[in-house]
Specification:
Elements: H1 4-7, H2 13-19, E1 34-40, E2 46-52, H3 54-61, H4 81-91
Length: 93
C-alpha cells in the first residue's frame, strides 16, 4: 500500500475511543481496564463517559471473572520497563 504512511491515523487513545470502540491500544498495554472520561461540551460543561477496555469487556461478556484476570491481562503499571522495551523491539522493523 503505497500511501499507507500518509493516510494512516496515528495510534492515540482518543482515536481508538472515537473510531474503534476502544478495541485496541495498539502495542501499548492499557493503563486501566475501566475508567471515567470527561469530555468538555460546546457550552463549557463536562459530560462523563464510562470507558471499558475492549478485551476486558469481551472477557467479562464471555463469562470470565474480571476480579481474577488471567496473567495475560497486564496493565501499563504492572508490566516492567524491560518487558515493555522487549515487546517494542520484537515488532520494530
Amino acid at each position: 500500500i503505497r500511501n499507507s504512511h500518509l493516510l494512516s491515523i496515528a495510534p492515540t487513545g482518543t482515536i481508538s475511543l472515537a473510531f474503534a470502540d476502544n478495541a485496541s491500544n495498539g502495542i501499548e498495554p492499557p493503563f486501566s481496564y475501566t475508567y471515567t472520561r470527561r469530555k468538555r461540551m460546546a457550552d463549557g460543561t463536562f459530560k462523563e463517559y464510562a470507558v471499558e477496555d475492549y478485551a476486558w469487556r469481551l472477557y467479562r461478556h464471555l463469562g470470565g471473572n474480571v476480579d481474577k484476570l488471567p496473567e495475560s491481562f497486564v496493565t501499563a503499571l504492572e508490566i516492567s520497563a524491560q518487558a515493555h522495551k522487549d515487546m517494542v523491539a520484537a515488532v520494530a522493523p
